[in-house]
Amino acid sequence: MAMLSDRERVDWLRLIRTRNVGPATFAALIAQFGSASRAIEALPDLARRGGRKSPISIAGKAEAESELAAAARLGARYIAACEDEYPAALAASDAPPPLLCVKGAVHLLRRPALAIVGARNASAAGIRMARELSHALGQQGLLIASGLARGIDTGAHTGALESGTAAVLAGGIDVIYPPQNEELHHRIGETGVLISELPPGTQPQARHFPQRNRIISGISLGVIVVEAAPQSGSLITARYAGEQGREVFVVPGSPLDPRARGGNALIRQGATLVQTAEDVMEALQPLLRSPLSEPGRQQPLSPPLADQSLIDKARPEILEMLGPTPVEIDELVRQSGLGAAGMAVILLELDLAGRLERLPGQRVALIG
Fold first, then answer.
1. Beta strands in 283-352 (DSSP E)
2. Domains and their CATH numbers in the chain
3. pTM greater than 0.90
4. Which of 33, 160, 316, 353 has its CA 20 to 30 A from that of 255?
């Protein structure tokens, strides 16, 4: 298992904080160049070849060191996707966040986790159900994960305070949201674990919540939905869970309650109906016996060989093959005959130029 040096951690943070570098691009850069420092050196030329007109903005060393120091002052630190403390299930997912800012009892992340999510405007019965489920499942050795929102999330965290709970935040590790959960935020930071992929001090924005939800499902073996209206954030978490190969459980609700319609729809689509902790544990037994593997751990690799002359020759053809409709990268490789290493370079060029969108299932689409 790799362990980053202080210098490497700074380089990793610089790379992921660079414009147009998301988790998938980060992983591709590490695979291509073997280290974050070599990837940073290659960024300007890659972006230029991808069609970027202005110089790419690379996060500076001082900026990264300042962010690490700010986390340390808060009692938090950063763990990398290649390190043992990083949640194994999340590392096994497609393009996990390269770095997580964590605070509290970080050893809890080695436990198998289960997420409980649901409506913010939850009913009293729904909150009680979440609290009782999380308490019972926590007593079975599971780490209960949620998003520290009002309603169901609050019930889930509260029920698991004694056994251990993980709160994934949509803002910085020190930003309390919603304000009424200040005491809960503080208690989890002491006896549970707080998780964020954003810099300290970052205020939650709408675009941050789907990213947070992907981490909630990613660290977990499964997701339990308790009360979720159609189009709610909880259904986004359930969708991510399905994409990541996780189990989706739903506590059914009355068809007369709008808060139950989203969850009941998931049951019609094949989610597992659960009413007790025993129902959940029975369904989880195969996963608990065979933990998720860890193909997503981003280890330094030997850079694959790619002939630059072949890449230059193939670039116009690849651009013609790409469009707004998502296509699998393997299909691009098959049709072009370029090879995976060369294709990775061209996609990185377009990515860093802001011209590529990466989608689940190793698919890409051209922007603009």
1. 327-328
2. 6-98 (no CATH), 102-289 (3.40.50.450), 308-366 (1.10.10.10)
3. yes
4. 160
